[in-house]
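Handoff note, outgoing to incoming analyst
You'll be picking up this chain. Sequence as last confirmed:
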Amino acid sequence: MKRRFSLLLIFGMTMAVAFAQSDLQPLAVVSLYKTESINLKQLKKRVDTYQAQAGVASFTVADKKQILSAMIDEKIVVQAAKRDNVIVTDEQADKAFIQAISQQVGQTVTEKQFTDLIKQKTGKSLDAFFLEQVGMDVEHYKDYLQNQLIAQKYVFSLKQDEIKKNSTPTDKEIRSYYDMKKTSFSQNDIVKIFLVILPKGDNVDAARKEINKLYEDFDNKKVSMDELALNSQKGDVDYQAGDMYVNKGATAAKQLGMNEEALLSLFGNDIGYVSQVQETQNNFNFYTVVEKYPAKILGLSDVVRPDQTVTVYEYIRNILTQQKEQAAFQKALESVVTELRTPKSYKMLKSDAELDALLKW
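Most recent structure output, in case you need it:
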């Protein structure tokens, strides 16, 4: 029985090695600047990545062929960039990676901070999180990102004027965009308050005494909003003070620790109104109403938010610029690939029939 088990085990190992060898067989070779092959295993990894991003279980053979073609294009462009000494350093790639993960959080974070956050929220390692989200571990994602940056930099170096020329929206395009989406540029009722918050800390009575003194000085005009805000930025005070723009809605009520009735009462107060000191579970606070903004459909010359300087017109122009720049870049990329993708720069190593058979996994 032991001998038979050993033979079966050896047979199983042989099959596994054969399978691995099958995965490692090259499908195409790129040789514009140096010789690099793309094997079945690499294609499978890229397919897994795109499937994870698209949220689909599998791609068709035709889809996989397109992905292989895109991988060939990527290698050709990256090789051309390296040939022409266009590079992206590891430091630049790391910076782009930090920007990418910071966008997910909504603030600038380090890789360690992001790793800790993912572990805290999901219980997963950063590698496991990236494998689930984009189908790559962190190391492979950074390599992928660096190649994308190299390709982007190379295309811009060749087609910058063309891309810039085709990326500027016209006044007519901006106004047409606004007319078609006018109702989406709506502003809810907003009130601007100046809020003073003092955490209770370990000594609630001392905190109550301090907030009452701050309130008394402010209400009697012994200290101004500017002075309170400036002092709150110093390290020797416990309170925080500054402007806050409050939207009329449940989310704002929750953030302020108010119920719906209290929030509506806030919006009913006149400009200059000063609240009494209020106590929440964790702090004491008071506020004064600084400005009120009624609900309305924003016009092109209105600012997007009262606390910003960007107008609706500028906001739309930025959106259309990004869209047109992306389209212009894609067109420029296709042009560069067409110029570079010649019989001398790459070679397919499988016939159509052989490739079709290999891609049916």
